[in-house]
C-alpha cells in the first residue's frame, strides 16, 4: 500500500546518503533518542518527512492563493458592496402599509 509520500522519504534518503542533513533537525533527533545514532536516524527521517510535507503544503497553498486569490477577493468585495447597498436601500425605503398588521 502506498501513502503518496514516498517521494518525501526518497528525498530524506538522498539527504542521508549525501550526508547533508538539516543540522537543527538532526540535533533534535539525537537529543530525543538519547544520542543513539540508529534511533536518531529513524527519528530524523520521520521529522524531515513531516517538515517536507508541511513545506509542500505551504507552497501549494501559496500557489493556490495566487491563482484564485484575486478572483475570490473581487467576488467577496463585490458581495460586500452589494450587501451594503441593499442595506442602505432598505433603510431609505418608506414602510409599506401592506406589510403592517
Summary?
This protein is mainly α and 101 residues long.
Question: Which properties best describe this structure?
Answer:
101 residues; mainly alpha; 0% strand; rod-shaped; single chain; 3 helices
How big a fraction of the residues is strand? under 5%
Gyration radius (Cα, Å) is 27 Å
Shape: rod-shaped
Quaternary state of the chains: single chain
Distance between the termini: 68 Å
Determine the structural class based on helices, strands and strand pairing. Answer: mainly alpha
Total strand segments: 0
Mean pLDDT: 81
The proportion of residues forming helix, as a percent range, comes to over 70%
Number of helices: 3
Described by strand count, sense and barrel closure, the largest sheet is: none
Low-confidence stretches: none
The topology string of helices and strands comes to HHH
What does this 3D model show about the protein?
The protein has 101 residues and is mainly alpha-helical. The chain has a domain at 6-68. The protein contains three helices and no strands. The longest helix is centred in the middle third of the chain and has 56 residues, at 37-92. The chain is rod-shaped and about 85 Å long. The N and C termini lie far apart (68 Å). The model has no long low-confidence stretch (mean pLDDT 81).
Amino acid at each position: 500500500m502506498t501513502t503518496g509520500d514516498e517521494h518525501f522519504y526518497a528525498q530524506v534518503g538522498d539527504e542521508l546518503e549525501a550526508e547533508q542533513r538539516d543540522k537543527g533537525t538532526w540535533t533534535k533527533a539525537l537529543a530525543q533518542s538519547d544520542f543513539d545514532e540508529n534511533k536518531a536516524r529513524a527519528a530524523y527521517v520521520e521529522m524531515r518527512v513531516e517538515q517536507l510535507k508541511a513545506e509542500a503544503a505551504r507552497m501549494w497553498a501559496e500557489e493556490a492563493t495566487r491563482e484564485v486569490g484575486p478572483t475570490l477577493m473581487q467576488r467577496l468585495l463585490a458581495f460586500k458592496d452589494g450587501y451594503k447597498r441593499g442595506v442602505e436601500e432598505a433603510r431609505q425605503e418608506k414602510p409599506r402599509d401592506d406589510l403592517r398588521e
